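Technical note accompanying the year-one report. For the benefit of new consortium partners, we illustrate the data format agreed upon in the data management plan: each record pairs a sequence with a structure-token string. No post-processing was applied to the example shown here.
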Amino acid sequence: MAGMSIEWQELYPIRVACALWGESFRNKRVTVWCDNESVVAIVNTMKSKVTKIMELVRPIVAQSLEQNFLLKAVHLASEENSIADSLSRFQMNKFRQLAPQAAPVSCSIPPSLTLT
């Protein structure tokens, strides 16, 4: 992810979540919380002037149409984003304390979505 904008880095996990759990999103309204207002706007409009961002947006749109789910983003103040911040910093003990209800084992990301 080196060299990618912060918007791209925050949109990428949303893309992965749609790929991993899209089937369970079928016929539902899905809300994601993000502490980046630009990403909130991108998710809510499904558009960006940035080509690399649109490379993530297009598959999200396609999947939401195929599985009939509505994706909405809500802004979350950075101070309230401790769970996601602990994950992004690989602070697993802190994450487990903040989110004890989280699955004990992480999900595997399909090779088609991994970054090399």
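Partners are asked to follow this layout when depositing records. The chain has a mean pLDDT of 91.
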